[in-house]
Amino acid sequence: MYLLIILALPFVGSLISSLLPASQRKLHALLAGGVASVCAVITLAYAPAIFQGQIIQFSSAWIPAHGIDFTLRMDGFAWLFSLIVSVMGALIALYAHYYLSPQDPARRFFAFLQAFMGSMLGVVISGNLIQLVVFWELTSLSSFMLIAYWYHRRDARRGARMSLVITGGGGLCLLAGVLMLGQVAGSYDLSTVLATRDVVQSHPWYPILLALIALGALTKSAQFPFHVWLPRAMAAPTPVSAYLHSATMVKMGVFLLARFWPIMAGTAAWTWVIGGAGLISLTLGAYVATFQRDMKGVLAYSTISHLGLITLLLGLSTPMALVAAIFHIINHATFKASLFMAAGIVDHESGTRNLNRLSGLRHYMPITATLAAVAAASMAGVPLLNGFISKEMFFTETMFAGTGNWFSQALPIVAVIASTFSVAYSLRFISQVFFGPPAKNLPRTPHEPPRLMLIPSALLVFICLIVGIFPAYTVGPLLHTAVYSILGAQTPNYSLHVWHGFNLPLLMSVIATLGGIGLIWLLNRYRKGRSDRAPFIYQINGRRIFEWLMGWIEAGADAVIHYTYSDRLQRQVLLIILATVGVSIWALRSGNWFNVQQLTTPDPLFALMWVAGAACAIGAAYYAKFHRPAALLLSGGAGLVTSLSYAWLSAPDLALTQLAVEVVTVVLILLGLRWLPKRVPLPDGLGISKARARFRRSRDAVVAVLGGSGIAALVFALLSRPHPEGVAPFLVEKALPLGGGANVVNVILVDFRGFDTFGEITVLGVVALSVYALLRRFRPPVETVAAPLARRQNQNDALQTTFEEPDPNAILPEGIMKLPAVLVRLLLPIAALISVYFLLRGHNLPGGGFVGGLIMATAIILQYMVGGVVWVESRPLIQPQTWIALGMLTAGSAAMLVWLYAKPFLSAQSWNLTVPLIGTIHTSSALLFDIGVYMLVVGSTVLMLVAIAHQSLRFYRKLPSIQKALQQKQES
Fold it and tell me: CB–CB of 908/751 below 8 Å?
């Protein structure tokens, strides 16, 4: 159960942070730090059990029909990563509190930071492959928001877009890979999958599995050729870089490779794909980092290099290489996060990160200089620091791993070369920033930051020191526990000592150190002032390649749109109907659809009703061009006939829903038509020829008849089946015993097909917000503004009339709307009661949250129509955005509430409540879900109404200029 708390706490903290006042900056930081600290404490509480080799698990039914459970699983490896994520999160929260300026919105930052932390923890402790990918993609989304935190900057927007495209695309590949892996292994449970090594590696799908999983891992860990996104992500605030791009997110790729190491490693394909990508990334990252002029640029490319080192070790497929890889994951998280914090402090206090401008900062910032120097020395692999030990282990593995081919023979040489550059860029990072003469003409006078801002970096540097001096007593138990959880009985014997005598790996370290010092001396002497351009490859720009690829994809999409899209709605509808006709013909031509054994005798009254509906539909099509209100009313008549047809065929729920939808749709479209300019016939010579117009009408008529006939044929084939089969009898029989409701339609919506309903209300909310956002920028034609107001206020001439602001304190509006206002205001409480009545009875009788919400929304719409925008909004009213948010939260809470009763997501849980004076009341979690639907329908409908209604409010106050424009138009 505590695993669930570890997972849920960051998301709860993110929600709370988003609701706290923006001015409470310290409270936001305390909340984020407290959440991370609690997660770390709970993780540490599992240490005794984890060190004994136990696996902590929590499981709940998720999709039992497919054998998929929501599973949390913490073994030694997951425990180690959970500790890194939570401890680093607490340190970053403290650091970010002092880093962010008063102008930076702390609420948004800490909300997204905690959401990212929760996503990371979800990946780490997931015990189900599908669940792992869900949290994997959540890390991509939350990191996108954090990288684009300063969205007013172009580089931040571009960097966030690039990272989302690459890592999100890799996540889709990973999804395909784990789906195939689950099929091969026979289960999506991680423990089961990890025990199927022989099955997986002998399966014909193994190469495809390897490619898809490698794409997911390499894109996330910024490995060649997908490394280009990480340097561009440095546009994010430095706390984001220190957390995401050194200690957590970029480690997810190597975490995944280590997690699947028992079943995927050990083949030649694994070595070439994973080891090859790691080798190139190791060398390329170290080489490019040496020539960067931005402090964060150096750290970004060095991160690519060190992650390449870890990936290479995992690709070697030996147990000792796995030990070295996990050890370097720990070490890299400590010294790289500390260096990012130092870079952020320098930028924060001096105003620049440009290495060519910085110099001698040790005179102004001695503590920061000391901490950065120790962390950089660890990155370079200096003895008595943790980076030295893992680098020695890396050298050892490059010497003794392999089968004698050219790849294994080249490894020691490439390792020394890469380490040489590592020493070089580490030395350059420190020497150019903190040593030399004091810098001049900096944007700000450098000074030490607040002491509390230095604490996170100091703690990490202390870990570098203590692990480097006493590795066996500090990190030894953690490393052994993590390795043993992956290898089990195959865990090799190894020793963590600072001194192993004079041997070949030590010689390689000496050569790399001396080579790095010599390389920096040469660069300072011969390339001074040009150190930002990497020789030979500086013309290869990853950002340009990415933008070219994106441009090529967009050009292809534009080409497709060119042949399929038109500004004319008629052509778009034509293509949709043609596609529908094609699908209908394909369905009807295959199978015995028309097996009619007995036809029902037509009822004359029903047939007459349909004749009226058909006449309305034809009339709506006829009047749609030049008489829009008439066409709208006729289409409403066709909808009314449809509603009556549902009632006639004993489908009262559908009849109610159709009727409510028709009312709301007609009203909203009528309000929208208010802003459309009057359509007039084109003069001769400007329109299309009569022959072409006749051809279009004939074509459209044929397509319309074919489309309607096809749908009618499908409906007839379904309704005339002699014995309905499929799920219908099951739903009717099981609605009451399984769903707890006698209304089959409502039980289907909120229980059996709850996922569909949840998705539909989500789409409805998104559409409402999109309409609101689009109409905020909408500017109607000027001729549509003044004339309706003149009619409303009984004025004869819109151009000669001075319009007055309506009085919001007036009891009733003036003019012809006085009597309707009285009736509509009396109608509001009655409509509210009726809507609640339909909401509460929906689980057993016709009704439900959707119908009730539409009734309530219609009553509010009538208030706007009769009372006007100014009068309505001057009084307390619902906030539509709040109702949408609360509706989603209520529906989601109802969906997850059943987890407390060990039931799958969106199942129904019933209770019998005893209420004094009333008696026993039977209720269900489906009611809570229906309340969420109700609130979201009301909020979405009213929000779209408000978007349209505000056009009147905006342009009413601009009538003088509008009248002038109309006057000029009349004169011309």
Answer: yes
For residue 426, what pLDDT is reported?
94
C-alpha torsion 771→776→782→788, nearest 10: 70
- List the structure tokens of 604: 């004359």
Q: What three-state secondary structure class fits 46?
A: coil
Asked if 160 contacts 142 with a C-beta cutoff of 8 angstroms, the reply is: no
Count of helix runs (H) and strand runs (E) in the chain: 41, 4
Residue 424 pLDDT > 90: yes
**Long-range pairs for 517-524 at CB < 8 Å and ≥24 separation?**
517/423, 517/424, 517/427, 519/290, 519/420, 519/421, 519/423, 519/424, 520/424, 520/427, 520/428, 520/431, 523/290, 523/424, 523/428
pLDDT band at 960 (very low <50, low <70, confident <90, very high): very low
Could you tell me the CA-to-CA distances from 509 to 377, 393, 396, 425, 744 in Å, in that order?
Answer: 13, 11, 11, 16, 74
Give the Cβ contact number of residue 910 at 10 Å: 13
CA atoms within 13 A on the CB side of 907: 18
What is each CA distance from 264 to 184, 256, 259, 719, in whole angstroms? 13, 11, 9, 52
Residue 237 DSSP class: -
Alpha helix (H) residue ranges in 649-753: 652-673, 690-719, 728-739, 744-747
Task: Name the percent of the chain lying above pLDDT 90.
Answer: 47
Max Cα separation, the chain?
104
- Contact (CB, 8 A) for 110 and 82: no
Please name the helix (run of DSSP H) or strand (run of DSSP E) that holds residue 58, with its range, or none.
strand 56-63
Name the least confident of 172-176, 550-554, 963-967: 963-967
- When pLDDT is averaged across residues 482-497 and rounded to a whole number, the result is 90
Give exposure, 830-854, as e/b (b: 16+ Cβ within 10 Å): ebeebbeebbbebbbbbbbbbbbbb
Q: Is 238's pLDDT higher than 90?
A: yes
Name the nearest CA neighbour of 263 among 204, 193, 203, 207. Answer: 193
Please give the average per-residue pLDDT across 817-838, as a whole number.
Answer: 87
Q: Which amino acid is at 76?
A: G
Q: Give the pLDDT score at 959.
A: 47
CA dihedral 330, 336, 338, 344 (to 10 degrees): -150
Nearest to 467 by CA among 521, 526, 529, 388: 388
Amino acid, res. 559: A
Return the amino acid letter for 633. Answer: L
When pLDDT is cut at 50, 70 and 90, the band that residue 967 belongs to is low
Helix 569-589 vs helix 690-719: crossing angle, to nearest 10? 40
Q: How many residues in total does the chain contain? A: 972
Q: What pTM did the predictor assign?
A: 0.75
State the residue for tokens 């390499």. Answer: 218
Confidence of residue 937 (pLDDT cuts 50, 70, 90): very high
Between CA 446 and CA 342 the distance in angstroms is: 13
Instruction: Report pLDDT digits (tens) over 183-234.
Output: 999 899 999 999 999 999 999 999 999 999 999 999 999 999 899 999 999 9
| Mean residue pLDDT across the chain | 85
- Residue 444 exposed, middle or buried by CB count within 10 Å (0-12, 13-18, 19+): exposed
Decide if pLDDT at 789 tops 70.
no
Q: How far apart are CA 845 and CA 732, in angstroms?
A: 14
pLDDT of 311 > 80? The answer is yes
Element (H, E) at 56: strand 56-63
How would you class 24 by CB atoms within 10 Å of its CB: exposed for 0-12, middle for 13-18, buried for 19 or more?
Answer: middle
Side chain identity at residue 545, one-letter code: I
Q: What is the DSSP string of 198-212?
A: HHHHHSTTHHHHHHH
